[in-house]
Design brief:
- The complex is a heterodimer of chains A (151) and B (192).
- Chain A has 151 residues and is an all-alpha fold.
- Chain A is built from seven helices and no strands.
- With 192 residues, chain B is mainly alpha-helical.
- Chain B has one domain.
- Chain B contains nine helices and no strands.
- Chain B starts with a helix and ends in a 9-residue tail after the last helix.
- The relative contact order of chain B is 0.13.
- Classes of the chains: A mainly alpha (151), B mainly alpha (192).
């Protein structure tokens, strides 16, 4: 398969992934986490059975990597206000207690394994730093909500 | 006898010069590693560090205004420290990559690219100016925080982008396929 044909297949796979799966995941934070979870930590390759059956494993892997980079770039370009809002909505969607969520994310920093490979270290550092600040904002909000007198 | 000693001496001299030539620094003019380093520096600057959106986000004042309005003093302090760290890291990385490009243009570029003396002089001046601007910006951020010199950030990023463009034109002859050959067989593998 030549490079141009392969690139076209990847473009089709990206469209397929966007249409069938990613359209159901509106927030870039959720998309980033979802796509990072498609990656094998031991090899760095992405796996998606449905996409691989419609195309090939290699094409599916490259399409998932493209979408992962896209979600990452979208999240990096969010303002801090947007990031905090996305995190709040994400917490609500997980049905866990916000306090437990914030504590776990502060300790485990799971976002560190969600970045695509070959991301510029400065860009990755910027996003990690924004997550850290967003978690601090959310924690402060939770604390102030706790001390507010009940009406 | 004197002739024999004379020719032996010439032989030894030739051998010694060959030996020193063979032991020359691998980064010397024309080495593939210098080209790869320059190409990587260009990619790091153009794709990683200098896109306008990223520069705007790192130095976005709206984030500070949001934190100032929404968060307590401890979070505000943390925000300032975090953004200062990121801003300093950004300037340091830009400086490092500019250094790499300058090293390439000072040495190896001459053997590959057809640069005219005027372009070479302009590049040398812009690299020198950029490195000085990086130092000044680092000092400003270190002393007064990430929002100390927004104009300086913008003009430095623009000047760096312009220098990259000129440098890119000099490296245009080196396409991805050639880089693959220079990197060895593994460079042709698919990226994730």
């Amino acid at each position: 398969m030549n490079t141009a044909t392969r690139r076209m297949d990847v473009e089709h796979a990206v469209e397929d992934l966007r249409h069938r799966t990613l359209s159901e995941i509106p927030r870039s934070l959720d998309r980033l986490i979802y796509l990072a979870s498609m990656r094998d930590y031991n090899t760095g390759f992405y796996y998606h059975d449905g996409l691989a059956s419609r195309f090939t494993q290699d094409v599916a892997c490259e399409a998932l990597a493209d979408c992962h980079r896209e979600a990452f770039n979208q999240l990096v370009s969010c303002s801090l206000r947007e990031l905090v809002a996305q995190m709040e909505e994400y917490i609500n969607s997980t049905h866990t207690s916000p306090r437990s969520f914030v504590t776990a994310w502060r300790k485990l920093e799971p976002y560190r394994v969600a970045v695509p490979v070959e991301t510029d270290p400065v860009v990755a550092h910027f996003l990690f730093s924004s997550f850290k600040i967003a978690l601090a904002v959310l924690e402060a909000r939770l604390r102030s909500a706790q001390v507010e007198p009940v009406a | 006898m004197i002739q024999l000693i004379f020719f032996l001496a010439i032989g030894v001299l030739l051998f010694a010069s060959l030996f020193f030539l063979a032991r020359r620094n691998p980064r010397s003019e024309g080495s593939s590693s210098a080209l790869i380093e320059a190409r990587q520096a260009l990619v790091a600057l153009q794709a990683g560090l200098l896109p306008v959106e990223l520069v705007k986000r790192i130095f976005a004042k709206e984030d500070w205004e949001y934190v100032r309005a929404e968060a307590p003093a401890t979070v505000r302090d943390m925000f300032k420290q975090e953004r200062k760290k990121v801003a300093l890291l950004w300037v340091e990385q830009v400086r490092t990559q500019i250094h790499s490009l300058r090293r390439f243009h000072r040495g190896a570029a001459r053997s590959y690219a057809k640069l005219n003396p005027k372009t070479e002089m302009e590049l040398a001046l812009s690299f020198a100016g950029l490195l000085m601007a990086c130092r000044a910006l680092q000092t400003a951020i270190y002393v007064a925080g990430p929002y100390a010199a927004p104009q300086m950030v913008a003009s430095m990023a623009n000047a760096a982008s312009r220098a990259c463009k000129v440098s890119e034109e000099c490296l245009a002859f080196l396409n991805a396929a050639q880089l693959g050959v220079l990197n060895g067989p593994s460079a042709g593998q698919a990226t994730l």
